[in-house]
Amino acid sequence: MSHETQGSVPLRSEADIVASRQMVRKLAVQLKFSLVDQTKMITAASELSRNTVVYGGGGDMEWELLADGLRQGLRLRFRDQGPGIPDLGLALKDGWTSGKGMGLGLSGSKRLVHDFELESTVGVGTCVSVTRWK
Q: What are the Histidine kinase/HSP90-like ATPase domain coordinates in residue numbering (predicted)?
């Protein structure tokens, strides 16, 4: 059992997306998340990892185990140095996609977690932070 409280997974390829999901599953189990909460966090991680690879040109998923009093949580940050998102409001609307996806990546991920932060600068990159509490 790992006692690390933070780390990162590179996101450059399809295999890395799978590795990020496996890491999130391991961490969610370690935190004793319910099966539903595990699934929500793994799904959000999968969507955001794919966005990082496909739209951001690759980046990293940073993870952190959180403790807030008796509450435990898992925070994931997805960072890339891609083209950025010109219109954050539009990007967060259900059904909007800049590619061929279903347009559920950002808005869907936001609904799966307790805390969601999105920062993006055109020409610099994007950082999406999601947190789920047990």
A: 36-134
Helix-, strand-, coil-residue percentages of the chain, each rounded to 5: 35, 30, 30
d(CA 55, CA 106): 12
Token digits of residue 109: 């991920």
Q: 38-42, 43-47, 87-91, 126-130: which range is least confident on average?
A: 87-91
- Give the Cα separation of 53 and 58 in Å (integer): 4
Q: Of 95, 97, 20, whose CA–CA distance to 62 is shortest? A: 20
> Using an 8 Å Cβ cutoff, are 96 and 103 in contact?
yes
Q: What are phi and psi of 94, to 5 degrees?
A: -60, 135
pLDDT in tens, 36-66: 999 999 999 999 999 999 999 999 999 999 9
Contact status, residue 52 vs residue 59, Cβ threshold 8 Å:
yes
pTM of the model: 0.92
- Tokens for 126? 């994007």
Q: Are 118 and 106 a contacting pair, CB within 8 Å?
A: yes
